Amino acid sequence: MKRLAATLVSFSLIAGGASAAERTITEGANRMPTSADIRAVAPALETYAQQVIRGDLWNRPGLSPRDRSVVTVAALIARDQTVELPHYLALALDNGVKPAEVSEIITHLAFYTGWANAMDAIPAAREVFVNRNIGADQLPPVAGPKLPLDEAAERQRATRVGEQFGQITPRLVNYTTDVLFRDLWLRPDLAPRDRSLVTVSALIATGQVAQVTYHLNRAMDNGLTRDEAGELLGHLAFYAGWPNAFSAAPVVKDVIEKRSTAK
Amino acid sequence: MKRLAATLVSFSLIAGGASAAERTITEGANRMPTSADIRAVAPALETYAQQVIRGDLWNRPGLSPRDRSVVTVAALIARDQTVELPHYLALALDNGVKPAEVSEIITHLAFYTGWANAMDAIPAAREVFVNRNIGADQLPPVAGPKLPLDEAAERQRATRVGEQFGQITPRLVNYTTDVLFRDLWLRPDLAPRDRSLVTVSALIATGQVAQVTYHLNRAMDNGLTRDEAGELLGHLAFYAGWPNAFSAAPVVKDVIEKRSTAK
Amino acid sequence: MKRLAATLVSFSLIAGGASAAERTITEGANRMPTSADIRAVAPALETYAQQVIRGDLWNRPGLSPRDRSVVTVAALIARDQTVELPHYLALALDNGVKPAEVSEIITHLAFYTGWANAMDAIPAAREVFVNRNIGADQLPPVAGPKLPLDEAAERQRATRVGEQFGQITPRLVNYTTDVLFRDLWLRPDLAPRDRSLVTVSALIATGQVAQVTYHLNRAMDNGLTRDEAGELLGHLAFYAGWPNAFSAAPVVKDVIEKRSTAK
């Protein structure tokens, strides 16, 4: 309920409020269009946003506002869309995503969507952090204790990938083990379930369905529910376009059905 | 012939004219490079643009300058490329695309390419509309009479999609029916054939060939000719890159051949 | 060794130097984030960049710093990521890529990634060229002597593509022969092996694996080694994201294995 209230307050910013977050948005070189800007081009578009996205989608059960924020931010970074990012990062903080989690999401997506995508997200995040006085003490340290590793599962993964690609591209295989699965994925300030949610969202948002099977299974192993996975598709339809949602739908269906049968 | 003249006049803007459209282009934060800018980096590139794109492609029969404008604007918005958008939106109006159609194209692509793509197109469209004194009276209303719906065909589509994905992602399935096929697609200010042309262009321009079959059939049901479909690929090769055109070519071929056999 | 030194000098720019290249970077509307900017959001991200990318990846054998620059610039242009482009173009020149090659890479990618991608790369290249006093005398001429054409191989390619798509999209087929394979690919200021390296990098960086087989074979026919192809995947994992590298890995493997068997 508190989260929902925060969401509604945050949305009101778009409709003409004048809080810190709104000021943030107008400062960038490419500022986010206002309601008036949108209406001057496409009045129906603004009404769809108001009624369907803000009035329905974000308030639906099935996926919490906090998770919707994680998914939206991941989609925008994966698609390198920075104009609306300050707004959605501010909304993410309002919805309960911690600054340390924002920091880890950007770091994670450097690897999963390309380094420049993470670099392009830095100015927006910096702006939002500065406006809210979020300093180094709220950010994850460079090094420190890691989450425990499931050695058997990781060895199995590494063996499989090594057999497939070790001869062809040993460097890619080694980086994947050393930097990704034995380091990045074990950083404690983003829960494994959320790290998988970010990864799956980025894959769907960029049309890279081939790897959704592995990462969605991983997400569900770590606690993402079947309903959340379905609702994720409905949410990403708006933020990554209908075709990306429908390209992923058969893969999501297949993962969910195989997991049901296996039980 | 009048259209061709408009096209040539519009192109002359790039080569050094000083009309309203040109001034529009230089106002943005990231202005479109001039001929001189391009020659300072790649003289051959500017010559290809002059001889092949402006001198040949846009003047070819098979696809009208008006349709080429629709396709180009759809490709740029789908690929979130906004720097050249003010120029191509101005050219679209010169080529006979109505302001109401521009408005509907952007609204349509919010759903078919992602909300942020539409948002990122707003400033360019607003700039062009302001420069031409295009006001609210020339824009489609938020609500109003809709085009007639083919209830049987829509029920068939909804049943098929519902059977496939209704269990997994009911929200996506419902939004698709209620917001897209029983609302967006029935808005009267963009003809169904043009709405399909925009959709197919966006799909090809972003490499999402899986859904080209459905939407190209729909486009051809609504009047897109076989020659126009072929010419579309030649046009998109320049605006979305050769690989996207060639990835779509087998799908376009398959659709055209199956329709010929069926007759 | 000289190249490596140049690389290290160039990297020091990011870490706080104040050379011409650094000044270049800060002039753009969307400037590249500094180390301090990155640390203010994600300290770990900056450490990964320092230790893994700058400290290891670029110094690895298997792919020269010059080739890594070609690959990185191609990936950024293909993905339309311009913020870091001035830095990587400056680094490319430091690493031995000639201005004429930069010019040809941009021209080549206009066709292979979409015209707007090339247009969006012009300001960055112009900035770097101006800063280094690179004038028209160092750029490839619009026309001039071409590389020799393997008539038999080209006729075979043209026949194959013509049979597949000549009926459906004659214009695309003709442009491919006349503008691409009998003109663009024969321009002498970018070696065929490098032109293929640029093409393959762009395809992998945008997830368009369907055409990697043809172009990687062509690259290897023109001298790209098996080790370089494998190292390319490790490099692109960072600049285009892990999923794109892993989507391409089976295709690269298949090409390399089939070539081994054929010998």
Q: From the helix content, strand content and strand pairing of chain A, which structural class follows?
A: mainly alpha
Question: Could you name the ranges of chain A where pLDDT drops below 50 across 5 or more consecutive residues?
Answer: 1-28
How many H/I helical runs of chain A? Answer: 14
**Rg for CA atoms of chain A:** 19 Å
DSSP E strands of chain A, number: 0
Distance between the termini of chain A: 34 Å
What's the arrangement of secondary structure elements?
Three copies of one chain form a homotrimer.
Chain A: H1 2-14, H2 20-27, H3 35-39, H4 43-54, H5 65-78, H6 85-94, H7 99-113, H8 115-131, H9 151-165, H10 170-181, H11 192-205, H12 212-221, H13 226-240, H14 242-262
Helix pairs in contact in A: 5-6, 5-7, 5-11, 5-13, 6-8, 7-8, 7-11, 9-10, 11-12, 12-14, 13-14
Which features would summarize this protein structure in a list?
globular, mainly alpha, homotrimer, disordered N terminus, 263 residues
Summary, kept brief:
3 copies of one chain form a homotrimer. By secondary structure, chain A is an all-alpha fold.
Textual characterization of the structure:
The first copy, chain A, is built from 14 helices and no strands. Chain A is mainly alpha-helical. Chain A is globular. Chain A has helices at residues 2-14, 20-27, 35-39, 43-54, 65-78, 85-94, 99-113, 115-131, 151-165, 170-181, 192-205, 212-221, 226-240, 242-262. Chain A starts with a helix and ends with a helix. Helix content of chain A is 69%, strand content 0%. At the A-B interface, helix 3, helix 4, helix 13 and helix 14 of A face helix 7, helix 8 and helix 10 of B.
